[in-house]
């Protein structure tokens, strides 16, 4: 087991937590894990099989069959993948199948993990917990620009509606709902660029790790 710290970075889609977590990991020399990819890959496997991501048996089977190649697929982003990921993440069997994998990764390496329940469920004893958020409108704008950059033609209003639907699904699920840990530091990136968000997060992390 590593003595290096585990840093939990949670928050809703398109808040900037992935970019922030990767930069923190690189700066601190820690491993990085995008736990959302596990759920995205699970959802994609269910869709590939022609099953419903809300089917508990199909979702759990897909989670237990995950392999590293699934995480490297190029079709794990976009509205269909987003909703499938959110649907499988609501299944207790899926979360149980992936929980030990995530914990083993963090305990072995020390790591920065980003997701939606890292600080509340996966690593409730993490040395540092951040909850990164932004307004729904700003997150939708960012996601819309990302989709346009990949050549997708979609209305910004549609992106906003889909994002709000996913937020609701993630926050309302009975198992490991998305919410800030009680001891998480909230970072609202609505008015921040990536550099400002990183500077704020790094200050929090360094303060926590030094015991300040």
UniProtKB/TrEMBL annotation:
<keyword id="KW-0067">ATP-binding</keyword>
<keyword id="KW-0418">Kinase</keyword>
<keyword id="KW-0808">Transferase</keyword>
<dbReference type="InterPro" id="IPR027417">
    <property type="entry name" value="P-loop_NTPase"/>
</dbReference>
<feature type="domain" description="Cytidylate kinase">
    <location>
        <begin position="7"/>
        <end position="202"/>
    </location>
</feature>
<keyword id="KW-0547">Nucleotide-binding</keyword>
<feature type="binding site">
    <location>
        <begin position="11"/>
        <end position="19"/>
    </location>
    <ligand>
        <name>ATP</name>
    </ligand>
</feature>
<keyword id="KW-0963">Cytoplasm</keyword>
<dbReference type="InterPro" id="IPR011994">
    <property type="entry name" value="Cytidylate_kinase_dom"/>
</dbReference>
<comment type="similarity">
    <text>Belongs to the cytidylate kinase family. Type 1 subfamily.</text>
</comment>
<dbReference type="InterPro" id="IPR003136">
    <property type="entry name" value="Cytidylate_kin"/>
</dbReference>
<dbReference type="Pfam" id="PF02224">
    <property type="entry name" value="Cytidylate_kin"/>
</dbReference>
<dbReference type="GO" id="GO:0016301">
    <property type="term" value="F:kinase activity"/>
</dbReference>
<protein>
    <recommendedName>
        <fullName>Cytidylate kinase</fullName>
        <ecNumber>2.7.4.25</ecNumber>
    </recommendedName>
</protein>
